[in-house]
Amino acid sequence: MLDLETLDFTKGNGLVTIVTQDEVTGSVLMVAHADREALERTIATGEMHYRSRSRGLWHKGATSGAVQRVVSLTADCDADAVLARVRPAGPACHTGNATCFGAGASDVLGAVDATIAARAAEDSVLAKVPAAEVESVAPSYTQRLLRDRNLRLKKIGEEGSELVAACADGDTARATEEVADLIYHTLVALRAVGGSLDDVRRVLDTRRS
To answer: Counting C-beta atoms within 10 Å of the first and last residue's C-beta, which end of the chain has fewer, N or C?
Structure first.
């Protein structure tokens, strides 16, 4: 864990800049400040604490539940900023966005997976609505896949075969399109069995390590 004695608090009048990053997705969640006390509390509790000029010592998620569990704390080369890699329990931003930099800060795969998750959640709500009312609501393509096991497995096979053909032909543009289609369909299939893109990221991160 971070050695506070190595940090230079003098440059920021007792504060250092904290760049908080999602440990799984790599997205920058927020930028804030911390003093020695805030970092001591962070290290002691394993959850992020900050120092705000208006709020004072601030335990992220203390009231909302969206705490940030610390994975690592790393000082930069000048020792006046810290990269905090965390596992967030909820949105980082008070607006409800995952990051304080808006939806555009999220990676495109994460956005696709989030949309699939939203469609799945909508389906769960619709399942509680009387059948006569549901018939008037046309399902999205993602919801059709989530509802039909055979359809989604068939599409994975089709997209995989088309990718193989494109690669065999050396067609870069078509192969790229087929990879995008295959990723989408596999994410839907994964969501249908209770998995998510973050689960895949964790597996890949473990293998990389």
So the answer is: C
